[in-house]
Specification:
heterodimer; A: 356 residues; alpha/beta; Rossmann fold; five-stranded mixed beta sheet; 14 helices; 21% strand; B: Rossmann fold; 10 helices; binds thiamine diphosphate; binds iron/sulfur cluster
Chain lengths: 356, 248
């Protein structure tokens, strides 16, 4: 049954239905509705909710709860997402699955509560220390806010990895029709590795710490990490294509910006301009497999994203393998405009736009 | 009557703390308390960063290695999803009272129902003996080379006084490991804290005065005497809150 919901609420409700029974977080616009929704809904569903003293305390409560086997989530935006990075790095070193939501807002420092997509680097390049990676889903609709948060839990547990849902203020605040997932419940004891008290599997107790210390030989650990990330890159790429097959220029985008790109493709096609779109659903792993189909075939890619300078443009450049030139259209604090996109594409075709 | 030496089966073997370190005694007391209360099999420890990390090789129960300062937040998260387990954090004074003070105070303030164990040796042991919030006035460390001064660093932090203002806490005590009587008392405090937790009464904490001979640059015996003298004079030993929290 479809219902009308705000993006942030749909995300929170879908997490509950995906069996998540723990939330800890701190208020920040444009994410606060997630916290508010969980504050009553989590206890109603038999879970635990904590409004912590900071995002740092929140992510670390989630680390504890997830390490104990519970499906656990935290959410934030901008400055608060920064404070979570230490915890995310630890989650990856302990290999604890959990979901972290960043409802992106605009700007560096305090920035502004308006929508933006400036956290792309921080989310996709391992925003904390040490050089880890983790799956990052980028919803572009209320429906995807629900679908991808549920998928995020499955992926997190599949790889024992934290997973980010990179939403934004526009998707979080918009109302849309959504089909919510079925309600699931999980046995908190389902993982052998999770903290529960010593048992026959671990007669001396579990030592769930940086896995480099006790679980791998000196020469094994780096390879183990590489293998994990390689498996994610191989298996988890998700993207949507819109009329890319015969496109002369292919737009590359995600989240709120990709919605406008879809309009632009339609409008351009109506004018006889063969425009297409690759919309990344996972921004990490970046959908390089989509590019492999069009490298050398399309005459240009153009990335469209809300940041001060191109961020996703760098990933597109790498994925294009110097076989197709990449152009960047960063739109800063404004959502892209369909006419502007088409004007930029015409500039590319006329040789008037500089390549990235 | 023949004497038998009984070692709890949660003690994994010889620990790796420095000779004369108080951490080893505290770990042993925790192991005995868990065994005597019948909680060795359901205990979960949130291990801090610092010499506390060495608990990983000393204590045979379920443990998680937490970010520096965040062990009490992790413990709270664990306890919230596994209320039937006995959950405690094991932290140094630097971890719990410097970088992790917010997590410490808010765990108590929010009445998180786990037990916090703070091993207070007045220095950052693991990183080589820098000053901690609990370094005494006049004490020389690698970052207070002329001795800690009130002018530069204020007075040493007393977490029991801070906690004491929070009416909902269930159990608070400050113990010490500098002599046999205090070791026995400290074990009693740990047991009472664990019992308060398992009764669902609320937040409990035992702070334990402990020697760091290595970074105090003292012989183990002299270190014990220092606690008996100036350290316990500043940090009075004893129970601060009993029967508090939701039982009150
Ligand atoms: C974020 C962060 N900052 C600094 C450190 C370095 N560090 C490791 S242990 C420690 C202090 C430990 O002192 P304390 O908590 O008093 O425990 P002790 O070693 O004395 O038992 C510090 C500063 C770290 N690991 N992480
Ligand atoms: S450095 Fe100090 S606290 Fe650490 S193990 Fe040695 S004596 Fe104990």
């Amino acid at each position: 049954m479809k219902q009308l919901m705000k993006g942030n609420h749909a995300l929170a409700e879908a997490a509950i239905r995906a069996g998540c029974r723990f939330f800890a977080g701190y208020p920040i616009t444009p994410q606060s509705e997630i916290l508010e929704y969980f504050s009553w809904r989590m206890p109603e569903a038999g879970g635990s909710f904590a409004q912590t003293s900071s995002e740092i305390e929140g992510i670390n409560q989630v680390l504890g709860a997830a390490a104990a086997g519970q499906r656990a989530i935290t959410s934030s935006s901008g400055p608060g997402f920064t404070l979570k990075q230490e915890g995310i790095s630890y989650m990856q070193s302990l290999e604890v699955p959990a979901v972290i939501v960043d409802v992106m807002r605009y700007g560096i420092g305090l920035g502004d509560i308006f929508y933006g997509q400036g956290d792309y680097f921080q989310a996709t390049k391992g925003g904390g220390h040490g050089g880890y990676l983790l799956p990052v889903y980028a919803p572009s609709s209320v429906q995807e806010n629900a679908d991808l948060v549920a998928l995020a839990f499955d992926t997190a547990e599949k790889y024992r990895s934290p997973v980010i849902v990179l939403s934004d203020a526009a998707i979080g605040q918009m109302c849309g029709s959504v089909e919510l997932p079925e309600m699931k419940e999980f046995d908190i004891d389902r993982f052998e590795w999770a903290l529960k008290g010593r048992d026959r599997h671990y007669p001396q107790g579990r030592t769930l710490t940086d896995r480099m210390y006790y679980d791998f030989g000196y020469d094994e650990y780096d390879k183990h990490e590489r293998d994990r990330y390689d498996a994610m890159k191989e298996n988890e790429q998700l993207w949507e294509e819109v009329q890319a097959e015969d496109a002369e220029v292919i737009l590359v985008s995600y989240g709120i910006s990709s919605r406008i790109c879809k309009e632009a493709v339609k409008a351009a096609r109506a004018e006889g301009l063969r425009l297409g779109l690759i919309r990344a659903i996972t921004v990490w792993p970046f959908p390089t497999k989509a590019f492999q189909k069009y490298n050398g075939k399309a005459s240009a890619y153009m990335t469209v994203e809300m940041s001060q300078m191109g961020q996703m443009a760098e990933d597109a450049f790498i994925a294009a393998h110097c076989q197709t030139p990449v152009y960047s259209m960063p739109t800063g604090r404004d959502v892209a405009d369909s006419e502007d996109i088409i004007a930029n594409v015409k500039d590319i075709l006329a040789g008037r736009k500089e390549a990235f | 009557m023949a004497m038998t030496k009984k070692i709890p089966d949660t003690i994994k073997g010889a620990n790796t703390f420095c000779p004369g370190c108080g951490h080893g005694v505290v770990v042993r007391l925790i192991a005995e308390a868990l065994e005597e209360l019948g909680h060795a099999d359901d205990a979960i420890c949130a291990v801090a960063v610092g010499c506390s990390c060495l608990v990983n090789v000393a204590l045979g129960i379920d443990k998680i290695g937490c970010p520096h300062g965040r062990a009490s937040a992790c413990a709270a998260g664990i306890k919230r999803v596994r209320p039937g387990n006995l959950v405690f954090s094991y932290q140094g004074d630097g971890d719990s009272l410097s970088i992790g003070l917010a997590e410490t105070v808010y765990s108590a303030q929010r009445n998180e129902k786990f037990t916090q164990i703070i091993v207070n040796n007045g220095v950052f042991g693991m990183t080589g003996g820098q000053a901690s919030p609990c370094t005494l006035i006049g004490q020389k460390t690698t970052t207070t080379v002329d001795g800690r001064s009130v002018n530069m660093s204020g007075v040493p932090l007393d977490i029991m006084k801070m906690f004491g203002q929070i009416e909902s806490v269930a159990y608070l005590a400050r113990g010490s490991v500098h002599d046999a009587q205090n070791i026995l008392n400290t074990k009693r405090y740990i047991k009472k804290a664990f019992e308060a937790q398992m009764a669902g009464a609320g937040f409990s904490c035992v702070e334990i005065l402990s020697p760091c001979p290595t970074n105090w640059h003292m012989e183990p015996v002299d270190s014990m005497e220092r606690i008996a003298g100036v350290v316990s004079a500043y940090y009075p030993i004893g129970e601060i809150v009993t029967g508090g929290g939701l039982n009150a």
